[in-house]
Structures are given as C-alpha cells and as structure tokens.
Amino acid sequence: MIYEGVLPVNKPAGFTSHDVVAKMRRVLGMKRIGHTGTLDPQVTGVLPLCLGRATRFVEYIQELPKQYEAELCIGYSTDTEDWTGETIERHQPGQVFLTEDEIRRTLASFAGTIEQVPPMYSAVKVGGKKLYELAREGKEIERKARKVDIYEIETLGLDLQAEYPKIRFRVLCSKGTYIRTLCVDIGRALGYPAVMTDLVRSRAGSISLDRCLSLEQIEELHRSGSLAPVIIPADRLATHLPECTVTEEEAIHAMQGKTIPFPASRVLPEAGHLVRMYGPQGTFIGLFQVDREREMLRPEKVFASSGSRNDAD
C-alpha cells in the first residue's frame, strides 16, 4: 500500500533521523519518505515523516516552530555541549550556588529574538564542510552568530541540592535553534559552565508527542492494515497559512500547475505569501503564491490530492 501524508513518529534514542527514514522505507515498502528536521541520535521525540507526495512539503513543515523539554546541568561543560562529549571544564561538586528566583528570572530573559553561535559539533557548513567534520579533526573555527526566536520558555523543575544543580525547562522556538547551545548560554548567564543532559522534542508544529507512534507500533499497524487512519493530511500542518477555495474550472487549471486569477471576493495576504488552495469539494490542491501585480495565484507546490478537508484526522 502506498501512503500519502505525514506520519507522526516518536523517535527512539540511538537512531539518527536518517536511520528512521531507512527503517520506514523497509517496513512500508516505500522509497518516497523524508524527515522534517534532524534530531541527534541521543534525542527522542516528535519526528514527522512525509510520505509520498507529501514529501513536497518537507521544507514548509521544517519551518514550523518546535517545542522541546530539556534538562541542563550546572557546574561543568563538554566539547559537544551535551552529555555525550568530553568534559572541558568542571567546578568542584557542591560549589554552585544559585537561587530558584535567580534561575527562573534568567530563563525568562531568553524569551524573544536571541543570537546563537552554532556548536562545533553541528551540521552547519562552513566552506563546504560540516562543522562536526572539522571538530572530529580537532579543529575549531570561528562561527558567525545566528538569530533565532524563543517564543516561550518556562522552568519545569529544579534540583538545587544535587552536586551539580539540574534545571528542567520547556522551550518553544524557531527552526535552527540549538537547545544544547541554549543550555550553555543559560549557564553562562548564571555565571557557571553548563551542559545539556536530556532532550525530548515534544511538539513540531501542531503534532504533539502524545500523537506520535513508536517504530514498533507503526510496523504492527502497517502489518494489520490499520496505519492509514493515523497518517495526517499534509495540509493539516499548514493551517497557519490562509486558505482559498476556487471553482471547478480553476481547480483543474491549478492541478495542471497553471496560474489562476484571484478567487472572487477573497481577501488574500500580501504579495509573496503562500495560501492553501482547495477545490469546491474541499480537495486540497496545493500551496500557491500571491502575485498581486498580475492579480494571479502562482503554483508553489501542487499536491492535487483526492483527500478532503472533511476527512477524519
């Protein structure tokens, strides 16, 4: 059976995102599968996989905000900024002195647009080479800071009695945010070295962790013929974009990848913005870009799905 849509996966520890894709290709007997954002092998949680024609929407799903639950440990640091690396600085146990109020205020101060320097152990490319490749060669190079958005950040729990105090927090952030680096920066703001000791992606766009399936569950559902109902139509993940409905004739032209006039009486966003286009029966056609100068909608990604907005989740 060929599936189309977004499969919500709960990635286990020990798998790269590519490992998950490779396994699902074998299990589902499909080649056309793509993931929507890399998770490090030790990180668990939400990893949406695009199946079939939904792979055309990977880049748009990647842009959606992500939510994480993380734990950081104050008092030592590693070369990878997480618990898998080599220790490069360590305070004596019991020599970290922080108050709950100080920690909560510091975390709250990171809300908004911040700058991050990508870690050396990352997939960011410099001069055509990935930083982690240079790091494995023992090289460290200067990296440019990048702006990222922290939409929400809140403290979930504190263990200030531990030899190295632990802080658990939840963060909602933009694409490209390194939570490892955020942990290090929080520690620096508190006056101590810090390291990320746990990370779970709890949400990607509208997909929450409680909606995701383990690899074993997916395999069993596929084997029993019960997987299709849990696959999410691709357009359900783009509800942040405005929608428009076109006539039957316009829908036919749109499915052929042609530009079409603005639908009558529709209020559309500014030029360059994307809209979700539907046919008169609720069939999702694809994403179209507003061209106000020509008063046209230009095809960006045509899906031409037979699925309807009225189909069950």
UniProtKB/TrEMBL annotation:
GO molecular function, one term: tRNA pseudouridine(55) synthase activity
CDD domains xref list: PseudoU_synth_EcTruB
UniProt keyword list: Isomerase, tRNA processing
tRNA pseudouridine synthase II TruB subfamily 1 C-terminal domain mapped to chain residues: 242-300
Catalysed reaction, written as an equation: uridine(55) in tRNA = pseudouridine(55) in tRNA
Protein name according to UniProt: tRNA pseudouridine synthase B
Function comment: Responsible for synthesis of pseudouridine from uracil-55 in the psi GC loop of transfer RNAs.
Keyword hit for ATP-binding: no
List of catalytic residues: 40
Similarity-based family: Belongs to the pseudouridine synthase TruB family. Type 1 subfamily.
Top EC class of this enzyme: isomerase
Domain tRNA pseudouridylate synthase B C-terminal: 180-237
Domain Pseudouridine synthase II N-terminal per the UniProt entry, residue ranges: 25-179
PANTHER family: PSEUDOURIDYLATE SYNTHASE TRUB1 (PTHR13767:SF2), TRNA-PSEUDOURIDINE SYNTHASE (PTHR13767)
InterPro entries, alphabetized: PsdUridine_synth_cat_dom_sf (IPR020103), PsdUridine_synth_N (IPR002501), PUA_sf (IPR036974), tRNA_psdUridine_synth_TruB (IPR014780), tRNA_sdUridine_synth_fam1_C (IPR015240), TruB_C (IPR032819)
GO biological process: one example: tRNA pseudouridine synthesis
Keyword Zinc found: no
EC number: 5.4.99.25
Membrane-spanning ranges: none
